[in-house]
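Task: fold both queries, return tokens.
Query 1:
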Amino acid sequence: MRQVYAVGIMKMEVFAMRLYLVRHGQTDMNKRNMFYGWTDADINETGIQQAEMLRQYFRQIPIDAIYSSDLRRAAHTAEIIAAGKDMKVHYDSAFRELYYGDWENQTIEYIEKNYKEELRGWVTDWKDLAMPNGEKFSDFYNRVAAGVDRLVEENRGKNVLLVAHNGALSAMLCHLTGAGMDGFWRFDSKQGHYSSVLISKKWTTIESINHPLCLEEE
């Protein structure tokens, strides 16, 4: 297991890679407070502005590779960032959000009204009980963890930018820091913000969480 060091603690070691974790820009479904894990919504005008600001910022940062979830809201954000560096984007479905099953495209209010018992059960046993016809959290976590392990192995010694979703980014941070599934609710990535992590064979160092450089969420 990697040891984890907080921001500001320096170790005398050459880090294997720096990973920038970016949450996609805002979508209309974000504004409506909806569950939309695998629903292929695109970013809205605010989301495009957020992505443009990310592009301007990362244009000055050395990046060797850009990865993204294959869902449109992440892919579009990544493509805007990549255009500022004349780079291609590598798409990977491993970095998709949790699939919500019957709760896809529904508001939280609708779910609270129409799935009271299912919601109560999921809140109590969220790691092992899937949403109706949805993806079990442990399967989601293992999918994301396997994807980020593969990304790290393929990009040692590089600076990599990855655009994904709030839940997927939380799962990555839990996995990379050794917090495991129990640490999932400790992390929350804001739309259009990024976190930075240094990863070596022995240590993971969190440099920043939710670095703000763009429009705030509405």
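Query 1 returned. Query 2:
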Amino acid sequence: MHKLYNQNMYNFGDPQPSYWESTQGLCKPNGKPLVSNETYDVAIIGGGYTGLSAAYHLGRKFGIEVGVLEAGHIGWGASGRNGGFCSIGGAAGSVKDLVKRFGLSDVKAFYKSQVDAIELVKEIITDNNIDASIQGESELYVAHSKKAFNELNELKNFYSQSLGLDARNISSEEFRDLHFDSTEQYGALELKPTFGLHPMRYINGLAVAAEHYGAKLYPYSEVQSWEKKGDYHTLHVASGSIRAKHVIFATNGFMPETLHKNFTSRSLPVISSIIVTRPLSNLELDAYQWKTLSPAINSRKLMNYFRLLPDKRFLFGGRGSSSGDKKGETRNYEYLAARMKSIWPEWKDIEIDYCWHGFVCFTRRLTPAIGRLSDDKSIFFGFGYHGNGVNTSTWVGKQLAIWLASNNMPAPISRLSQGLSPKFPFAPFRRHYLQAIMTWYRVQDSLR
């Protein structure tokens, strides 16, 4: 595959040094690398939330035989590396900009699907007895300045009055009493429903459930070429192939640039990095009156996201390096640690036990891309979740399963997300767009 970033980002055979991988437990799928030539009703490229949700629903609801090809281990990509936020989002940019582009009705439908997606994740976890370590009941958008709090108050009004979301503002004093304090705490917007989870345990549980309903999973089976003859697609891996009448393309941030012409230059993967501390003592937590289990983000354009984990470790994430090389990521982890300790200075001596990174997938449209190809209706796709993939991709996988089985686009797919997003111009230089964007965001943050 053509690579936008350093090879360090694409070593599919390497385990990830994440907290999630080291604590994933014993529940794992049974899949093995593909070493034969197989035929299925549906072939899925990508063993993350989108692909496995599609496989799960195709098997459970429709009895359709599915083969899933994953380049790394199951959940190797963003599905096993994210911050574990099951939250409302899925699109980038401001909600008011979305309304200008698509209209209030379509934006409202999109946000309803986000709430439905969160409930779907809960349903899958409950129905399949997945030990996903669910925490909290809301997402906290923490204002980093008084001006930012005023902006969040306007956003709360729009969320609740125009979109019908469960949103409320919390003053700085009330927030300190209910949740925590920091040097950048000027109140917050609380948005429900949202919760935190263990993303690796969730993806493993979803994979096991998909297997239970008949899906065959093939880890370490990167698709190297794709051809179609007559009604059948053939996906070739190093030591075998899958032949199928339908293909679901679900690779998200690791989308191969040369595998299929329709998907070239459609996405912009952006590196996000996470650090996790050693377990904090009660005394250390009391220094900032920490009480909440709900996941949180701050209101900066170059935002950080954070949450207290079940074993009292602290997870803190943010923007990654610009290239993905090891030296750049080491510098970025050091920056993240310094950033965290500037917000909570009493934690300046707390050790960092885990550091890792991965991709967030953007589209040029800044909304998810969900659909089937107009020139080959046997190919379906879902990608571009803009940092909110836990619930969005799970929901997208279900919609693709319904669409494929019924041959009708499900009504819940909002116009915001229908079809492929336009290609990025000057595609080889996509990564360099980010430098200008990040500079502009820093300027905006300095003014807020």
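Both queries returned. Flag for query 2: The first strand starts at residue 37 and ends at 45.
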